[in-house]
Structures are given as C-alpha cells and as structure tokens.
C-alpha cells in the first residue's frame, strides 16, 4: 500500500463535501501539474491519503481512499490530464496543522514541507504513522 496527500481549498471543495459524496467518491479533477498527475498514475485501489485543507486552515483534516484508478480527467479538453477518484474514510480526531508538521524533525523531509505547492503528494509509511499519531488515529 502507498500513502498520499491531497490538497484542496476548503471553500472550493472540502473534506465535508467529499464525505457527502459517499462510497462513490469524487473524481480528483482539475489537477494541472505533471508531477501531481504522475503521482496519481502510480496510485492503486485502496491506497490511503490525507485530505489537507490548504490556504485557509492549512491542516490535515481527514483520511481518504483511492477508489478508481487513473483515468482521463473529465474537466480536461486537451486529453493530456488524468485523475483518480477518492472517497472519504473518516475525519481525523485532531486536525494536524502545517506548523505542527514543520515543527516535527521527523517530518522535515515530508513533501508537505519540501514541495508545499504540489497538490497531490506522496507520503512515506513512516510519515503516515507519525501524522496519524499526531491526529489521534
């Protein structure tokens, strides 16, 4: 299993919005970055990820699951962009802020710290365990 982090501005699409989509989940569309697209191409059904609210609160607020493999992005008219579908698994008991992640020496190499602008990021198994513990999971 691999782990990921998906970023979204909560006023555009929040973890609550994803939760309302139920088991069907939501196409993670609109991503227009080659590295983020390539990350989605590597995902497998059942991979887990953190849902991160960017800009407003800058925190990990939930756990998601990949429920559909990479496929053409329905919002793309060029045919070059792909996306996966994800569904909400559960909210985290304690949101983990970007400041808390940056303050942890063990997370200093996490993509959230080193590649902050990337909207779909890999998370190592060790980083996953640490952030889960910080979130009360």
What does this structure look like?
- This protein is an alpha+beta fold and 137 residues long.
- The protein has a single domain (3-134), classed as Roll (ph1033 like fold).
- 26% of the residues lie in helices and 35% in strands.
- It contains 5 helices and 6 strands; from the N terminus they run βαβαβββααβα.
- It has helices at 15-20, 34-42, 98-103, 111-114, 125-134; strands spanning 3-8, 26-27, 48-53, 59-72, 82-97, 120-123.
- The chain has a 6-stranded mixed sheet with strand order 2-5-4-3-1-6.
- The longest helix is centred in the last third of the chain and has 10 residues, at 125-134.
- The mean pLDDT is 97.
Helical amount:
25-40%
Write down the CATH class.
Alpha Beta
Major sheet attributes: 6 strands, mixed
Outline type: globular
Number of strands: 6
Give the tally of structural domains. Answer: 1
Specify the CATH homologous superfamily: ph1033 like domains
Structural class: alpha+beta
Q: What's the helix-strand series?
A: EHEHEEEHHEH
- Work out the radius of gyration: 14 Å
Mean pLDDT: 97
């Amino acid at each position: 299993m691999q782990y990921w982090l998906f970023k979204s501005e909560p006023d555009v699409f929040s973890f609550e919005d994803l939760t309302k989509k139920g088991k069907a989940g939501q196409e993670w569309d609109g991503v227009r970055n080659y590295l983020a697209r390539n990350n989605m191409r590597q995902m497998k059904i059942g991979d887990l990820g953190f849902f991160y609210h960017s800009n407003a609160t800058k925190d990990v607020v939930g756990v998601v699951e990949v429920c559909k493999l990479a496929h053409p992005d329905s919002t793309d008219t060029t045919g070059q962009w792909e996306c996966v579908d994800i569904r909400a698994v559960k909210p985290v008991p304690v949101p983990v802020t970007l400041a808390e992640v940056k303050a942890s020496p063990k997370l200093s190499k996490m993509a959230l710290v080193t590649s902050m602008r990337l909207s779909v990021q890999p998370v190592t198994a060790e980083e996953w365990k640490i952030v889960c513990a910080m979130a009360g999971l």
